[in-house]
Amino acid sequence: MGELEKRIRDVRVGLDGAVYLLTDSPAGRVLRVFPKEIDNRGNHNDCLHDGGNA
């Protein structure tokens, strides 16, 4: 996830199966990563949701 240009401080997996990332900055953010959909070839199209400030 280099495109975020932020260092990841912590990673957790939630009960919902999503991966939660905490960025390491003064205005840290919690990001939720989860599979958005599966296309007709069985490929996952991942989705990143910005949960806002930590």
Q: How many helices?
A: 0
User: Can you count the beta strands?
Assistant: 4
Give me the strand/helix succession: EEEE
Q: In whole angstroms, how far apart are the ends?
A: 19 Å
Question: Which value, in Å, is the CA radius of gyration?
Answer: 12 Å
In short:
The chain is mainly beta and 54 residues long. The protein is 0% helix and 57% strand.
Characterise this structure.
- Helices cover 0% and strands 57% of the residues.
- The protein is an all-beta fold and 54 residues long.
- It has one domain.
- Strands 1-2-3-4 form a 4-stranded antiparallel sheet, with no helix packed on it.
- It is globular and about 40 Å long.
Question: SSE layout and pairings?
Answer:
Layout: E1 8-13, E2 19-23, E3 29-38, E4 44-53
Antiparallel strand pairs: 1-2, 2-3, 3-4
Which short descriptors sum up this protein?
single chain; 54 residues; mainly beta; four-stranded antiparallel β-sheet; 4 strands; 0% helix; globular
